[in-house]
Description:
There is one protein chain. The chain is an all-alpha fold. The chain has helices at about 25-35, 35-50, 55-60, 65-80, 85-100, 105-115, 130-135, 135-145, 150-160, 170-190, 215-220, 225-235, 240-255, 260-280, 290-295, 305-310, 325-335, 340-350, 365-380, 390-395, 400-410, 415-420, 430-460, and strands spanning about 15, 205, 315-320, 385. The protein has 2 domains: about 20-205, AhpD-like, CATH 1.20.1290; about 240-460, no CATH class. The chain has a two-stranded antiparallel ribbon with strand order 1-2. The protein has a two-stranded parallel ribbon with strand order 3-4. Mean pLDDT is about 85; it is low at about 205-235 and about 285-290. Its main location: cytoplasm. One of its GO terms (cellular component) is nucleus.
Amino acid sequence: ARQSPRDLGVRIPRPLGNGPSRFIPEKEILHISKVDTRTRSIFEDAFAALGRLDNISLVMGFHPQYLESFLRTQHYLLQMDGPLALHYRHYIGIMAAARHQCSYLVNLHVNDFLQVGGDPKWLNGLNEAPQKLQQLGELNKILAHRPWLLTKEHIEGLLKAEEHSWSLAELIHAVVLLTHYHSLASFTFGCGITPEIHCDGGHTFRPPSLSQYCVCDIANGNGHLNHHDDWLGNQDMSGEVEVLMERMKHLQECRDDEEASQEEMATRFEREKTESMLVVTAEDEECVPSRDISRHFEDPSYGYKDFSRRGEHVPTFRAQDYSWEDHGYSLVNRLYPDVGQMLDEKFQMAYNLTYNTMATHKDVDTSMLRRAIWNYIHCMFGIRYDDYDYGEINQLLDRSFKIYIKTMVCSPEKTTKRMYESFWRQFQHSEKVHVNLLLMEARMQAELLYALRAITRYMT
């Protein structure tokens, strides 16, 4: 008789998590892929292309149209013809994800990097990588945390570095990858994505412990609420959705009545921008990056936090001077054909996605709410649309939601389960995932705008 691996003394790993997300019950996620044939075929294609189906895709499966667009773009950036060599692409993904200590994405791309023949030595740290990649460190850092500080001099430094120079096309490819992985790190933390079983942190050889808790969950405040508390908490939230819908209706009526002056509109923007800097991200405990990840970049202390503490000012970037639609899109399309088109579709998809529902209500026009979320994120980055009334943001986004947005977009590594649970408590998980897609795409577009504007300024 064949002996089982266990009899031979082989240790069998056990999955650590319960499914792809620490925040969303596993059965909800798996339920989707069973029901929706479209989702299933997208999953099959993804598996065929990559030889794996990652947990990010499983969670995005709540929104199959978006997932399709996302996977198409990511596949193109990583695998199809383009200015950069394959191992460079994965290394840049590692560098970008490491800015937020996102070990989930770092480990994924370390595997891919080695698979396409990347030199393992580079994984000891950026200083072991070629000079050309090292020079990208500064751009990576500024884009991830303070993109408004990017100047045409930074761009010039990369394009005129003698034998280590980047070409414009390579630089655009690199910028798109950096912004893609910064924002994907936001999504990963914002949805509580857990490592796959075959990855670091995804399995254990210990037998299941008696208690439900794991030490790190307790440290992060992710313990299980007992249901009694939860029920009490939900009592006062019972009218949350109705209140929000009422406000949307009220704002719609006001819109038709009064037209605020240009100065008043500008003042409302500046007020919201200043206030957004004072929104404190999560519990703000000092979190030291694990040694393992911090070696992928220098200066791990450079982040969003310290700078907002010192009260530095975020300059205003007027969208009419440089917008994605009128400027960014064509620049990307010129230098890295097809990618501009794909990014544009992906932005549109996240921004326009709607099922016309809010929690249990049907036939709701949610465009006002989606716009408030998108514009709030751009406002945190200093980007102003002069036809938008920023007074609407305070009406539609409450404090716990703003804290969640700020944390997920600026310091995603600090997002906790408690924060995810505390905003929009009556909404469904699929709606919260939708919000996370909006946050991720708005962040990516904001970073891209600063990078592309700097490149345009260098070129003109």
